[in-house]
Amino acid sequence: MTEEQKRQLRDALWKIANDLRGKMDADEFRDYILGFIFFRYLSERMQIYADAVLAADEINYADLREGTDEGEEILDAIRAEAVDELGYFLRPSELFEAIAAKGALKGNNFILDDLSRILTNVQKSTMGTESEEDFDHLFEDMDLGSTKLGRTVADRNDLVAKIMGRLSAAQVDFQLNNVESDVLGDAYEYLIGQFASGAGKKAGEFYTPQQVSTILARIVTSNGAGAKTRLDSVYDPTCGSGSLLLRVAREVGIRNIAKGFVGQELNRTTYNLARMNMILHGVHYRQFDLKQEDTLVRPQHEGMQFEAVVANPPFSADWSADPAFTTDDRFSTFGKLPPASKADYAFVLHMLHHLADNGTMAVILPHGALFRGGSEGAIRKILIAERNWLDAVIGLPANIFYGTSIPTCIMVFKKCRENPEDILFIDASGPDNFEKSKNQNSLRDEDVEKIISTYRNRAVEERYSHIAKMEEIEENDWNLNIPRYVDTFEEEARVDLDEVLVELSKIDEGMAEIDQRIANFCGRLGLKAPV
Length: 531
Hints:
Layout: H1 3-20, H2 26-54, H3 69-85, H4 96-103, H5 112-124, H6 132-135, H7 153-166, H8 183-197, H9 210-220, E1 222-223, E2 226-227, E3 234-236, H10 243-252, E4 261-265, H11 268-280, E5 288-292, E6 306-311, H12 344-353, E7 355-366, H13 374-386, E8 390-395, E9 408-414, E10 422-427, H14 445-457, E11 465-469, H15 470-475, H16 497-524
Parallel strand pairs: 3-4, 3-6, 4-5, 6-7, 8-10
Antiparallel strand pairs: 1-2, 7-9, 8-9, 10-11
Helix pairs in contact: 1-8, 2-8, 2-11, 4-7, 9-10, 9-14
């Protein structure tokens, strides 16, 4: 599929979303439109799988006669295989296209009850199986009884019927038969990004801008000056919609992450979105392990370590900092807990606890994490002077994240560093290193490439990057503020005073001539000259 065709699919889906959401806020309609796209994906996957099973008998799954002894016998056999392979099951009458066709009828086109039952049946089909947790309450944010969809039941039914009609196969081709392409996955990510841009501050809860995600993904898949082609595992303790995890997969290939994707997310709606995102990108339900809980208070993956660890935690969020955490294995060896008003280092220590000895960790933090004192300063000193785990610090431009304009950085950690005598500093915040726009700045492809190339080659460039020896960092009292290491000062051009005086003399001569001309004009008019 060409890039133009991919763009057309993205644009078509976004147009449908805009046309149909009416006065509903973008972040509210997001849950509906993405949910319906996901339902159609499940339906189409189900039909493709069942058609392949029935191909030898020349039976089309959608035409299978339900209710007959032969039809039900076939459905029972397909159900068992589908739940094992796909993780769920849908009957022919429950497929998206069947419901969309009923909604398009004139007169008897009421589909809300059928749709509610079907979405519940998807979950029920997984009960008692390996995939049960992955589909548990997956559609709970699609409240078909909400007045946001319409004041009356008829209004709500009409809108849902329109959505399904616009998303039907006759209107939009998802290209699911193209096994070499992730066209729908790309479009889904695009929609999440578009909804994020309209969600304001809330967007930070579920989406990391694509270019920033790419930087983190390429860092944790770096192998010297090159890139890894396989990973043992990848973990994101604040996984949002799963975009960071999937961006890592894009670097090495979904099938090349041996133990799969692991993540935790506090927000229930965002957790549902992450599970949908995984499945829709073709990640098998056995290949991801996502949990919904407070990562710092109730971590869900104890005893597990990962080769790649990435995160974009909430900046300087509150956390309990309960003294009981001083005996927690994640924090106990650091002597102090991060302050209750700033959880940045609580997330850092949690992530390091789960980082394998051969792994790489990249985390996005506010700039304050580089230089704040108190317990954070003490923790920072231990990480650098005693553990020697900090590998690089990358300064990012301000105003590149949704919902906040503060400057941010990426801190890169390794427990077994190739360059233990120094730390690389990169200042990518300069005006030449990003594209400035009115509402939000952004990193261009060339800006991302420069950051990654500099990191992998540990290259030094004036006013951009610097390799600081440990002695230099100790002299700065373990303060990592980037301007202490990367001097971006540009000396002003020297001024030739003799040349300036000559220019001023010429200007004076010119002014004298003009003054005389004005005086002559005034004399002819019988007026007193003003000069």
